[in-house]
Amino acid sequence: MTLLAFETSCDETSAAVIRDGVILSNVVSSQVALHAEYGGVVPELATREHLRNFLPVSREALKQALVTPEQLHAIAATQGPGLPAALLVGLKSAQAMAFALRKIFIGIHHHEAHLFSPWIVATEAGARLDIDAFEPNISLVVSGGHTLIVHVASELNHRVIGSTIDDAAGECFDKAGKLLGLPYPAGPEIDKLAVQGNPRAFDFPRPMIHDPNDDFSFAGLKTSVRYFLQKNPALLNDTSRLPDLCASVQAAIVEVLVAKTIRVAERLNVKCVTASGGVACNSSLRKELARACEKRGMRLRLVERKFSTDNAAMIGILAERKLLANQVSELDADIQPNWAL
Q1: Are 279 and 143 contacting, i.e. CB atoms less than 8 angstroms apart?
Q2: What is the CATH number for 184?
Q3: Residue 34 CB contacts under 8 Å (≥ 6 apart), including other chains
Q4: Other C-beta atoms within 10 Å of 76: how many?
Q5: Tens of pLDDT along 42-81?
Q6: From CA 209, how far away is CA 197, in angstroms rounded?
Q7: What's the pLDDT at 126?
């Protein structure tokens, strides 16, 4: 079984070829440099780049996989959530391709695909889905656009336990970094600088960490950083204190993410925790999750860094599982920009 999958929910144009759980190719065209000038993703520019890159990325994915369009069994694409115009480019192009080639089409939920990414493992030939190792887990899905805690009871069976009521964790990283004068995307920059800093140098709030619910809120932390810098403007001109500021902001975000995720796992008596999404690249989050899980005898599956950000490989992996379960989509299925998991 061979599938061609597409991901265009935000600012990466990606295509991947999957065959029987093996990732034969995964081509990603990033737009980070383009949007850096504006300090964030500009939807109109992202859409234009998807239109420009879709065919070249598709051809390259097929070329790397040594697969022809006629050899495909199905075509998949992200249906939502995401930027409406960006989703339209990928979904409608994929549907047109499926119609022209008379192939099955599968629309994929972007967040659900993230749930499968920690189970993608590297091999000598590339990467594959380690479905035999799959087990019930509490999944932390955390990126610039979403922050979720999901109970994955079994394959294709999940329930959202908690989500953000305002800003996502990755958005908080980027906006706090912007206040600190760091370039976009600021999350990775904070991570690099924080290694040299003291996470206890400045005491920033841990929003909702003690609340009985499982939701997140990071808007208040971002505002706290802004007010702190307004009261202490000299810190922005003292480069020696920047690592301490980064480490302190990062510690606040990471502590909330870890505490809430582990609390859910303990309450539901689930012995496996997974983490995926772009923020799952953060070195402190990976370290603290590993420490918390080891302390409690829990197993931890962290997404490999190259599959943490938006990519078509995870879309194709999930699409194949849905195809095996006979969960396919209509060729006229529309985008769902606000699709709830």
Answers
A1: yes
A2: 3.30.420.40
A3: 11, 45, 49
A4: 33
A5: 999 999 999 999 999 999 999 999 999 999 999 999 999 9
A6: 23
A7: 83
Rg (CA), the chain: 20
- Burial of residue 193 (CB within 10 Å: 0-12, 13-18, 19+) is buried
Is residue 111 domain-shared with residue 96, that is, in the same domain?
yes
Report how many domains make up the chain.
2
Q: What is the DSSP letter of 183?
A: P
Quote the pLDDT of residue 37.
87
Quick one: the chain helix, strand, coil %, rounded to 5?
Answer: 50, 20, 30
Q: Are 230 and 273 part of one and the same domain?
A: yes
DSSP state of 73: S
Interval 298-333: pLDDT, tens = 999 999 999 999 999 999 999 999 999 999 999 999
Our separate counts of H helices and E strands in the chain read 10, 12
301 and 187: one domain?
A: yes
d(CA 89, CA 132): 35
For all residues of the chain together, what is the average pLDDT?
Answer: 96
Q: In the predicted model, is pLDDT for residue 125 greater than 80? A: no
The pLDDT value recorded for residue 144 is 86
Same domain, 296 and 155: yes
Residue 340 lies in a domain: no
Residues 37, 51 within the same domain? yes
The pair of three-digit structure tokens given for residue 8, joined into one six-digit string: 């265009």
9 is in which domain, residue-wise? 2-132+307-324
Q: Is residue 159 part of a domain?
A: yes
Token couple for 315: 């879309």
What CA–CA distance (Å, rounded) separates 126 from 211? 43
Q: Do strands 147-154 and 157-163 pair parallel, antiparallel, or not at all (unpaired)?
A: antiparallel
